Amino acid sequence: MFRHRWATVGACIVTALVGGGGCRQKAEPPRVIPLEGRTVDVDPRRGKITVSYYSEKHDKEITATGLVTDETEIRINGVIATLADVAVGEFVKGEVRVEASGDKKRMVALSIIIDRPEPKPTPPP
Q1: CB–CB of 49/114 below 8 Å?
Q2: Which fold has domain 31-114?
């Protein structure tokens, strides 16, 4: 019995070392990255925002969609706002948490900051 237990343990160790033991691929720890770009699509109903931005890593313009949650901080001119207040074509800054597992990536917006130009006052008649 004792010899059988060691044989089983040894077989498990060899399997784990040689073939990976059939373990699933581990998810990478999430990382937070800054992001600046222009909104291409805003979908408050589904809680998603699509932004076009320049990627230095890829040396080209990239379009990516991120999830907007209840924890996402949205500010327009310093005032708390909602995703419904964000318009297509606006320049946004913020932070995104990138969660990767194997080939799949999920982007979650942590903050969305918009500085809109103040409207010019109309001159008196």
Answers
A1: no
A2: OB fold (Dihydrolipoamide Acetyltransferase, E2P) (2.40.50)
Closest CA to 33 of 113, 111, 88: 111
Instruction: Name the one residue in this structure whose structure tokens are 């160790």.
Output: 13
Using alpha carbons, list the distances in angstroms from residue 1 to 9, 11, 14, 15.
12, 15, 20, 21
C-alpha closest to that of 66 among 95, 101, 28, 24: 95
Contacts of 24 (CB under 8 A, 6+ apart): none
Question: Quick one: CA torsion of 19, 21, 22, 24, rounded to 10 degrees?
Answer: -110
Which tokens hold the place of 14? 């060899």
What pTM, to 2 d.p., does this model score?
A: 0.72
Note the pLDDT tens digit of each residue in 58-68: 899 999 999 99
